[in-house]
Each structure stands twice: as structure tokens, then as C-alpha cells.
Amino acid sequence: MFNNIAPYYDVLNHVLSLGIDIIWRKKAIKLLKKSNPKTILDIATGTADLAIEASRQIPDAKIIGLDISPKMIEIGKKKITKKNLLDQISLEVGDSEKLRFESKSFDATTAAFGVRNFENLEDGLNEMFRILNPGGQIVVLEFSKPTIFPFKQLFNLYFKYILPLIGKIKSKDPKAYKYLYESVQQFPDYAKFGEVLERVGFKEIKYKPLSLGICTIYLGTK
After folding, report:
1. What CA–CA distance (Å, rounded) separates 163 from 219?
2. Which residues of 155-174 are buried (b: 16+ CB within 10 A; e: fewer)?
3. CATH for 2-143+187-221?
4. CA distance 169 to 171
5. Tens digits of per-residue pLDDT, 131-156?
6. What is the pLDDT of residue 9?
7. CA–CA dist 176, 174 (Å, integer)
8. Contact, 137 vs 32, CB < 8 A?
9. Which of 75, 155, 161, 221 has minimal CB crowding within 10 Å?
10. Higher confidence at residue 181 or residue 52?
11. For residue 203, what pLDDT band results from cuts at 50, 70 and 90?
């Protein structure tokens, strides 16, 4: 599915979020920047938008972006080549739940709109915990469900009916954006996701809802 939508992924993200996804990434990396990581692993990197934003705000960091979709990685490589970021960012195909990296290899690990796609959420987070150095930080940017009336109802209508229709027309994949709605509904957001991070072993867990709860930034420390 992700290979199929890869050519349309960036445009659809910006259109369907009205461009707010760009701001969300900036805010997530701004929070990560405070810990000044020198090595970052970006999980489920997609076409590398979060990795590119990290390279902009933290120019001294070395970043590896990993994704299970070869097509996403292919497009991401073209983007970092065009931006002359090959010295700072490298991309590779890999399984987020079976990372090839040694334990205690990175200062930070990030994921934007990817952890809800893990086949087993705790397995993927355990791997993110394992590869972190002691004191290392996890930053997760993920969709969440608004709770404020009537925004909750309006957003649900948009996410369930309008977004899949636009996605179907643009990407030619009728399943992709229906899956997006379903995966967001099933994801344990807010404090529930904080509890999952705590079970994995993370401490100092915080979460920050954005745009009335459409999206949330989660932070934790090893």
C-alpha cells in the first residue's frame, strides 16, 4: 500500500492537512533540539520529511532514516540529494520492529505518523528503546483524536469520509486513506500511549496535543 501511494505521499500530506503537517514536524524537532543529539534514527521515515527537518534545526547531527517501503526510500533519497544533505542523512529500507543497529547506538529516535503502523506496537517501541543511549530521547509525532465539541465531530466527518475520497482520487488507491482513518481510531493516544511508553521503559514522559488534538507530540527519555 505504501509503495503504491509513495509518488503522491508528500502532496497528499500537505493538501489533506492544509499544510499544517509541516508546522507539526518543526515543533517536534524544536523539542528534540533541546537535548542536542548527535545521532538520530528516524523510524518509518517515509520520504524523509522529518529527517530533513531535523537536519535543518540540528545541523551537527548525523541522521539515519529507515522505512519498510522501498518506494518511499527511493523518493526520500532524491529529496536529500537535491537538498545536498547526503553528508548528514542516509536512508535505508528496513523493518522498524527488527532493527539492525546495536544497542545504545543513538542519542535520539524519532517517528512521524509511523508508530501506529507497527504490526506490534510494543515490539517496535522496544526496539526504539534498545538502540538509544542512556539518557537518549524518543520523539513521536502521531495523529490523535480531538476531544473538543464540535471540532471532534467535524474532524471525524472529514477524516472518515472526505479525506479518503480525496486520497482515492489523487493516489488511485482506495484502501490507503480508509486505512488511515481506521488506524488512527485504533491507536492508543494521549495518556494511553504514554502508558505504553512507560511499560517499554521510558521515563519523563510528556505529550503535547497540537491543532486542537488532531496531532500529538510524545516525548520520553531512556
Report:
1. 28
2. beeebeeebbeebeebbebe
3. 3.40.50.150
4. 6
5. 999 999 999 999 899 998 898 898 88
6. 65
7. 6
8. yes
9. 161
10. 52
11. very high
With pLDDT > 90 as the criterion, what percentage of the chain qualifies? 71
Measure the CA–CA gap between 197 and 219, rounded to whole angstroms.
9
Phi, psi of 51 (to 5 degrees): -60, -40
Q: Distance between CA 2 and CA 221 in Å, rounded?
A: 30
Strands 39-43 and 106-112: parallel
Q: Annotate 65-90 with DSSP letters as a single string.
A: EEES-HHHHHHHHHHHHHTT-TTTEE
Strands (DSSP E) along the chain, which ranges?
Answer: 39-43, 62-67, 89-93, 106-112, 132-143, 203-210, 215-221
Q: Which DSSP state fits 98?
A: S
The 8-class DSSP code of residue 214 comes to: T
Q: Nearest to residue 46, comparing CAs of 84, 16, 8? A: 8
Start-to-end CA span in the chain (Å): 33
The one-letter amino acid code at 47 reads: T
Query: Which DSSP letter does residue 102 get?
Result: P
| Amino acid code (one letter) for 218 | Y
- Give dist(CA 162, CA 156) in Å, integer: 10
pLDDT in tens, 9-53: 666 666 666 779 999 999 999 999 999 999 999 999 999 999 999
Single-letter amino acid, residue 39: T
Q: What is the DSSP string of 117-151?
A: G-SSHHHHHHHHHHTEEEEEEEEEEEE----STTH
